[in-house]
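Forwarding the complex inputs:
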Amino acid sequence: MSKLKNIFQTLKQNQQKAFIPFITAGDGGLDNTYALMQTLVDSGADVIELGVAFSDPMADGVVIARSHQRAVEAGVSLDNVLDLVRRFRQLNNTTAIVLMGYLNPIEIFGYQAFADKARECGVDGVLVVDMPAEEAHDLKRRLDAVDIDFIFLVAPTTTDKRLKLLATIASGFVYFVALKGVTGAQHLNIESVNANLMKVRKFIDLPVGVGFGIKDATTAQKVSKSADAVIVGSVLVAFIEKYSRDKTKMLASVGTLAKQISLALKR
Amino acid sequence: MNNYNLPDDSGHFAQYGGIFIAETLMIAVSELKEAYEKYQDDSDFIAEFKHDLKHYVGRETPLYHAQNLSQKISGAQIYLKREDLNHTGAHKINNTIGQALLAKRMGKTRIIAETGAGQHGVATATVAARLGLECVVYMGEIDMARQALNVFRMKLLGASVIPVKSGSKTLKDALNEAMRDWVTNIDNTFYIIGTVAGPHPYPMMVRDFQSVIGKEAKRQFSNQAGGLPDALVACVGGGSNAIGLFYPFIDDKSVAIYGVEAAGYGLEKGPTAHAAPLCAGSVGVLHGNRTYLMEDKNGQIIEGHSISAGLDYPGVGPEHAYLKDSGRANYVAVTDEEALDGFHTLTRVEGILPALESAHAVAYGMKLAKQLGKSKNIIINLSGRGDKDIHTVREIEGNGL
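Prediction (whole assembly, two chains):
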C-alpha cells in the first residue's frame, strides 16, 4: 500500500485529519529546508509538500513565487530536491513526501529518469501544477510503474465532466483549491468550500486535501470538518522569508504555527 | 490543394502546443475554446471583424514594391507588406480586434493583457476604449522604463498599467502576472494574449485573426506581379506577425518561408545574449504550451536579449516549432547590429521607418534577396512602424547625425 494511502487510512480510523505543510525546497538553502522538514515532522506534519522551484511559477501568489525565485537564484535543481528527499529518508520513513511544481524541470529531466530517481529517493507523490489530466498520461504510466501517487488539483470551477476524468487518473489524494485565485490569496469562504467538497466526493473516491488561503489553526479546524487534509503553504513560506537571516527564529515560528494547526486537526 | 490542418482538436501541432495550465484555469480556457468554435464561422462575427479591420484599422494594408531597396541590393524584387500602416502602428491590432469582439460576445466586461514593448498593450487598450471595456495591462517594470511613451499612451486610452516586479520584470513575467489575474477574476475577465503562444486555443485563434496579413499579401502579389512570391520573410518573437503572413502559404510548397529571430549580441555568445529559441534553444513547456524555449539544463527559463523589446521573449509559438521540425519553414537569426543596419537602410532608401522588430526581417530579407538573384520575388512583413524605437536608436547611436 502506498504511504499516502496508509496515512489517510490510519488518520481516518482515529477520526483525525492530515496536516500537510508546504515549503519550497532550497529556499534559504537545501540544509535550511532539511532543518525545516525536521521541524515540520516534530510539529505533527503527516505529509510534507516540497515545492520544486521554477523560474515562472504562474499559479502561485507573490509569497510563494518569491520563494521559487530565491531557490532558482540559489541554483536549486529538481535533481537537488530529489537528493534532499533521499537525505530525509535516511532518518524518516513515515512522513510522506509530495513534490509540487511545474512541468518544465521534469520535462528536461526526462519523465522516466524522474520517475526512477523519485522512487529511489523515496518520493511518495507528485503534483504537477501546469499538467492537466489531458496531458498527463505518459507521466502517469511511468509514475504508476514505480508506485508513486499522482496528485491533481481540483478547482471550485472544475466541471463534473472533468471531475470524472480526474477520478480516472488521480491517486493518493486530490488537492482542492479553496478559492479562485493563486496561492496565499484572501477571502476563503468555508461554506462554499464545504459545498464544493460534497460535489468532489460524488465523483472522486480519494481523500480530499484543501489548500490556498489557509493561514491559521482556526481556519484549518473549520476546513477540516469536511476535508481529509489541510494544506498550508504561504503563511509558512512568509516566515521563511521574514526570518531568512535568523534561522533560529525561522524554525521556531514555523514550528509554533505548524504545531497549532496540527493540534487543531488531531482533536 | 489544402492539406495542412493543424492544430488537432486538443491543440497539438504534433508534439507542440497543447494545454499546460493549472486546473484553476481550465474552465476559462474551455469557455474560450467553445466560444471561439462557435463564432469562428459565424457570419455576423466575421462580418463585424472584417468591418472593423476595414473601417477602424484601415485595412487592407498595401503590398509595396520597394523598388529602391531592390535596386540597391541588386537581387530579388522586394515587396513590403505594410502592417506598419495599421491603426496603432503594428499588426497587433488585427488580433486584439478579434479577441475583443469575442470577449463582448462572451459577456466579459474586463480585459487584461500582457505587453513587452507596449505595442500589444496599446492595441488592447485601444479596442477596450472603443468597446467601453475595463482594461488592465501587465508590463514588466524594466519594460515600462524602456517604453515609457507607450505606458503613457495606454493610460491616455483609459487602461491601468500594472508594473510587474517579479522574476526578470519583463514580458514573460507580465504574462505570468496576467495569468494570475485571470485565475482570480475568471468570471468577468477575458485575457487577450498578444501572440501565438499560450494554451490552446490561443495559438490557433491568434493565427486565424492575423492570417488576414497573408491572405491579402497573396492576392495583392498575384495582382501586382502574377503567381506566387518565391519567399516570405518575417521576424519571430512570439511569432504572430510571422504566422499571419506564413499560414495562407503553407500549402504552397514553392514558396520558401523564413522566420527571423533575434540573435542579439550573437548566437555564439550564449543564451543570455540572444532571444532565438528556434535557432539555439531546446524543447520545453512554458506559458501553457510545449515549444522551443530558452532554458538552462535544469529547465529554468533564461531571459535573453534583443535590441527589440518585442522579440525579447524566451519562448515561441508552438506552430513555429512544428514548422521548423517539419522543415516547411526555415528559422534564422540576425544580430542587433544587422537589425540596426536594416533599420537605417530602409529609412534612408525608402523613407519608411521600420520597428526594430521588423528591421530584423528587413535585414535578413536584404541578405536573402541578394542570394536569390534578380529573377525572384520576396515579401517581407513590415510588422510595425519604428516611431516607438527612435528613442532606443538615439540612445545607442548618440544624438549626432
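The mean pLDDT of chain A is 96.
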